[in-house]
Amino acid sequence: MAQKNADIVFVLDATATMGVFIDRFRRDFLPEFTQRIVEKSDAVSDKTNVRYKVIIFRDYGTEGESAIKQSKFFRIPDETEELNHTMLYIEAGGGGDSPENGLEAIYYALTSDFAEGEGSQTVFFFTDADAVALGKRKDCAGYPEDMVDEEGLKSLWLGKTPSRLTQKGKRMIMLAPEGTAYSRIAKEMDKIMFIPTVKSGNLNDIDLASVLKMLF
């Protein structure tokens, strides 16, 4: 029986305005998403190796080296309990309503240690704010010295820069406000589903059940 890989990275804005959403995400969206993806995997003849990773981001200007944090990849469903334990320690705070370092978080998502071989790489991105331009916080504590610019980010997504991201298997579901760097980038790159959100609205306008219906 052939084995396929399905790696999924959840990138979450963890600034103060996102507290209610993060609670909804771990209580409602993540368990339902996991149930559906496991059921989908069990329904096909080929065994699928499903893994989740979580990245949270804030702002290097206020949080320094703690602005972005990454988990390992968790095997689903075997390591679901460990994932849930990790999610319990994610708390919203800092950042305020100003633009955050979400583009840097996307870079880390795209350069994840995705499984090699046949399969898919999906990035879910959630924010209610705009992005700071890549490199604008380069003088702040903890900012990565080797961070790419926007063209470098696009090069990664398009496969012009070597990574474990595949052009056949990649996709991104981006929930962010219109008129931001995210909405512009979504129009300039392929295989991105952009779902507009209200700016500084804590994603309260988003029905996560509807998002699930779009994906399954």
Please explain how this structure is put together.
Helix 4 (102-110) packs parallel to helix 5. The longest helix is centred in the first third of the chain and has 25 residues, at 19-43. The protein has one domain: Rossmann fold. The protein is globular, with a radius of gyration of 17 Å. It has seven helices and seven strands, in the order E-H-E-H-E-E-H-H-E-H-E-H-E-H. The protein has helices at 19-43, 60-63, 80-88, 102-110, 150-157, 181-188, 208-215; strands at residues 3-13, 47-57, 68-70, 74-76, 119-126, 170-177, 192-197.
Strands, helices and their partners?
Elements: E1 3-13, H1 19-43, E2 47-57, H2 60-63, E3 68-70, E4 74-76, H3 80-88, H4 102-110, E5 119-126, H5 150-157, E6 170-177, H6 181-188, E7 192-197, H7 208-215
Parallel strand pairs: 1-2, 1-5, 5-6, 6-7
Antiparallel strand pairs: 2-3, 2-4
Helix pairs in contact: 4-5
Sheet-strand content, in percent, reads: 15-25%
Q: Categorize the overall geometry.
A: globular
Biggest sheet details? 7 strands, mixed
Helix content percent band: 25-40%
Class computed from helices, strands and strand pairing:
alpha/beta
Low-confidence stretches: none
How many domains, in number, for the residues? 1
